[in-house]
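Let's sit down with a protein and look at its sequence and fold side by side. Once you have written the record down, we can walk along the chain together.
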Amino acid sequence: MNHVLSTHLFVNHRLTSALLGKIQQAGIPAVEIFCARQHLDYRDKAQITELGHWFRESELKLHSLHSPMYNDEIWGRSGPHAVVTITEPVKSVRLHMVDEIKRALEISETIPFQYLIQHIGVGGEEFDMRKFDAAWSALEELNLFARGRGVEILLENIPNELSSAEKLLTFEELTHVGMNYVFDTGHANMGAGVEHEFQLMKARIRSTHVHDNNGKDDNHLSPMLAEGGTIDWKKTMELLRSREDRYPLALELKDRGDNPHLLDTACQVFDRLEEQ
């Protein structure tokens, strides 16, 4: 399978051409960049321009961009106002959040990429039909904006009552929005299970987020290397390979602060998964 590494692994550090160069030197052919302003500040034209120059001279490909979850530089700790969510029911507030996502989409004008990964809601959010209505309105505008820039927005299964695999299908049935998905193994493991959610989503999967956990905590463990993971990776890889022409194997791991060799570990994970 084609390999992609999410820069979520380095999200607490500023994304530089030097870091991207190290990813390329490790033999990883493509990345998904995580839009967190302490990492990639989508409002900072100087950073975007610098990275754009680097990508034009590089063989490393930008596969996708993860939509911003917060508008501050400290993971939303500045307060509730920092959360960026398309389920905000107050239209005037939601429009500001849609504009924030548009700023991220504008990166494609400097650095082309295929997909923007978008959440419906935040972790643990409860179901409310008004939130579905808000998300539908936001996505209508965002899809139009993205298509004009050659980008497709993918919806991700996340652990809340709005975007499990079942709820993504319900959202499609209600809105006929016609969107494809990114399949997150760790989030599926926290919900109805990897196989169950994959089977529901498989026809529309266009990318992946591959990581492990204990079934309860979204801790983005390294598959087959970190302790505490509970996903059956042999079975999961059989599922993923059943439609491998449709999407890459994209790792979305977390730096837990105890590993000075993060890229070596990521490459080991790719190797271990391919051996399954």
In short: Strands lie at 3-6, 30-34, 61-66, 115-118, 152-156, 180-184, 205-209, 249-251.
